[in-house]
Amino acid sequence: MSDVTSSDSALRRFLHGLPGVDAVGLEGRAASLGTRSIKTTAKAYAIDLAISMIDLTTLEGADTHGKVRALCAKGVRPDPTDRTTPKVAAICVYPDMVATAKEALGDSGVHVASVATAFPAGRVARGVKLADTADAVAAGADEIDMVIDRGAFLSGRYMDVFEEIRAVKEACARPDGESAAHLKVIFENGELATYDNIRRCSWLAMLAGADFIKTSTGKVAVNATPANTLLMLEAVRDFRAAVGVQVGVKPAGGIRTSKDAVKYLVMVNETLGDDWLSPDWFRFGASSLLNDLLMQRQKLSTGRYSGPDYVTVD
After folding, report:
1. Which residue numbers are catalytic?
2. Distance between CA 267 and CA 270 in Å, rounded?
């Protein structure tokens, strides 16, 4: 695939040569997968799997070190009354909170993810984006969630977007030679406007070296949807078939209930199979989803629905 990225014209030719998306077929397929019936045993497994796939997130201007420490404690032990509850995959914070999260999580195995590159708009110079990324990595971030330049993409400047992703990927390296931070590339699907653009963006990010492709920032009106996530799942499937490299997927924004999470897991299983049913390859970007999963988990184990007063408020 090196020829595809050898020039701006070659990259444009490749991206616009991808098959067009059948919107009706895509949305119909996503809707049909959402109707699958899940039995009790499978539901219990799915709830635990979903908990283990959460990037528990706080990305507010009012974030404090105390709030981040409390979120880390919840991520490590989501239900203090039940030690069998899985830990979440990661705690996602702004770069200035990475060191606090890293210290609070210690050797728990929960990763620290950090949004960078002037999240959520990304409207700064590339040098600032790279410095933002390097600072987060130096503070201990295990994962970087970057936002693409949607203006450049929508203007057809695909090589600019490609080169920026590559540069951020290089900034994820650690000076001491330790393993580089994993890079999640956020598209902001609600601003890409068309399914064809989402498919092109998926391939562009994967060609540039993304470890994960991510639907959205959670800061716009349209975030993760079953249809746009399914399209991205199909893209990573086709990419692995073409080049032999597996890339993860992270839907983010608007996924709030256990029912929603299970629908997404069914979609992953039906589209990609067991290879992607792991926190290494699929994540939920969420802040409120965890509480609903915990309430449903309690109901399955006790037969009673405890309600929101029995889980912590983030």
Report:
1. 145, 214, 250
2. 5
